């Protein structure tokens, strides 16, 4: 993923926050829609925001068949609604994103709850919402200890207010 020069420069000097791209308004969900959270945007001002979409980077396209975790004989896989096991390609995408994020040492991530890729506390397994993480979240966690869902905006606000750079561009 390539970023504009201005964003690349800011990434070098300001704390990095990772955000699921669909929460920022990108129409990258399986159904071609976004899940934009307008109230999140002011909280991110002053930080270097890195949008990520593991499913898009995995080449799954938009729109695409919805995916979910499935379990069988104690093994877990991510499978599309048309029966394709997308686990290997999604795993590669998640590893690639996490490796690119590690040098940035993100202070936190705000990710889409219940997504099989980005879920923080819940995800979809065998047609149900269950406690668990998405594949990307699981890979990111060892490198980013503060993970929030978009349903925890008050926690996000408290966390970022305390860490907002005093000279951050666009700080309120
Ligand atoms: S939840 Fe994650 S993988 Fe799904 S559309 Fe949003 S950013 Fe992409």
Overview of the structural elements:
This protein is of the alpha/beta class. It has one domain. Helix content is 25%, strand content 22%. It is built from 5 helices and 8 strands; from the N terminus they run αββαββαβββαβα. It has helices at 5-13, 54-57, 87-101, 135-140, 153-161, and strands spanning 16-20, 48-52, 67-72, 75-80, 108-111, 122-125, 128-131, 147-149. The strands form 3 sheets. The protein has a 4-stranded parallel β-sheet with strand order 2-1-5-8. A hairpin with a 2-residue loop joins strand 6 (122-125) and strand 7 (128-131). The chain is globular, with a radius of gyration of 16 Å. The two termini are 29 Å apart. The structure holds iron/sulfur cluster. The site of iron/sulfur cluster has 13 residues, from helix 2. Iron/sulfur cluster is lined by residues 20-22, 28-29, 53-56, 112, 115, 117-118.
């Amino acid at each position: 993923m390539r970023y504009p020069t201005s964003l690349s420069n800011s990434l070098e000097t300001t704390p990095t926050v990772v955000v699921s791209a669909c929460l920022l308004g990108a129409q990258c969900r399986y159904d071609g829609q976004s899940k934009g959270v307008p109230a999140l945007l002011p909280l991110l001002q002053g930080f270097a925001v890195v949008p990520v979409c593991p499913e898009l980077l995995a080449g799954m396209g938009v729109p695409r068949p919805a995916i979910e975790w499935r379990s069988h004989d104690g093994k877990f896989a991510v499978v599309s609604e048309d029966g394709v096991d997308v686990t290997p390609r999604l795993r590669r995408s998640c590893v690639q994103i996490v490796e690119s994020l590690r040098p940035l040492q993100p202070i936190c991530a705000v990710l889409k709850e219940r997504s099989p890729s980005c879920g923080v506390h819940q995800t979809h397994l065998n047609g149900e919402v269950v406690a668990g993480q998405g594949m990307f979240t699981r890979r990111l966690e060892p490198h980013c200890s503060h993970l929030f869902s978009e349903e925890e905006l008050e926690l996000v606000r408290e966390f970022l207010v305390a860490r907002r750079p005093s000279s951050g561009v666009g700080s309120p």
